[in-house]
Design a protein that fits this description.
Helix content: 25-40%
Largest sheet: 5 strands, mixed
Distance between the termini: 56 Å
Strand content: 15-25%
Strand order of the largest sheet: 2-1-3-4-5
CATH superfamily of one domain: Carbonic anhydrase
Number of strands: 5
Shape: globular
Number of helices: 7
Length: about 190
C-alpha cells in the first residue's frame, strides 16, 4: 500500500471515530499571532509545544528557512491577511539552529535537478527570462542574520500597521530552547 493510501485509510477511521472533535476551533487565532517558521520536520510538534500553543492559538506559516524573501511574495501576503482579516496583532519569525538553508548552494540544488531530469535548456530559458536561480536557490550563512533580515522586511513593509509587534526568535531543534533575537522590532521609517 502506498503512503497516500495508508494516510487515506487512516483518515477514514479518524473521521468515523470523530477524533477531529478535540481539534475544533475557528479561523481566528486565539493568541492573535502569526508565526513564520521553517518547514523542518523536527519543528512540526516541537515548536507549538515549546511556545505553549494549542490548536487555534496562532496562524503558522512554514517555508524553507523561515525566510521572507520578497516583500510582495506569498509569505508577506499571508502575514498581511492574518493581520487584516484574521485579527493577528503580532508577527513572530522563528528560525532554528542546524537549518538546511544554512550554506545552501544553488549549484548543488541545480546539479540535483539536472540528475532528476531538468534539462539545461530549461535552466537557460529561465536565466534568459530574468530569473536568477542562483540567488533564488541560495540559503544564508547565519540563521540569526536570516531571522533579522526577515523581521526587517516585515517590520518595514508599507502595508504593515505600526501597532503590530514583530519579533524574531531562534529555536533549538533538539531541545526546543528559544532565544530572543529581536523583540518588537521598530520600523526604520515610514
Amino acid at each position: 500500500m502506498s503512503v497516500i493510501n495508508e494516510m487515506l485509510a487512516y483518515n477514514r477511521q479518524f473521521v468515523a471515530n470523530k477524533e477531529y472533535e478535540s481539534f475544533r476551533t475557528d479561523k481566528f487565532p486565539d493568541k492573535k499571532m502569526v508565526i513564520l517558521t521553517c518547514m523542518d520536520t523536527r519543528l512540526v510538534e516541537l515548536l507549538p509545544k515549546a511556545l505553549n500553543l494549542r490548536n487555534g492559538d496562532a496562524k503558522i506559516i512554514k517555508n524553507a528557512g523561515a525566510i521572507v524573501s520578497h516583500p510582495f511574495g506569498s509569505v508577506m501576503r499571508s502575514i498581511l491577511v492574518a493581520i487584516y482579516e484574521l485579527n493577528a496583532s503580532e508577527v513572530i519569525i522563528v528560525g532554528h539552529h542546524d537549518c538546511g538553508m544554512t550554506g545552501l548552494n544553488s549549484d548543488s540544488v541545480l546539479d540535483k535537478a539536472r540528475k532528476r531530469g531538468v534539462q539545461d535548456n530549461v535552466l537557460a530559458t529561465l536565466d534568459h527570462s530574468g530569473i536568477d536561480l542562483s540567488r533564488w536557490l541560495t540559503g544564508f550563512d547565519h540563521v540569526q542574520d536570516a531571522v533579522i533580515k526577515s523581521v526587517n522586511i516585515v517590520r518595514n513593509h508599507p502595508l504593515l500597521p505600526n501597532d503590530v509587534k514583530v519579533h524574531g526568535l531562534l529555536i533549538h531543534p533538539d531541545t526546543g530552547q528559544l532565544d530572543l533575537v529581536l523583540e518588537n522590532a521598530q520600523p526604520a521609517s515610514k
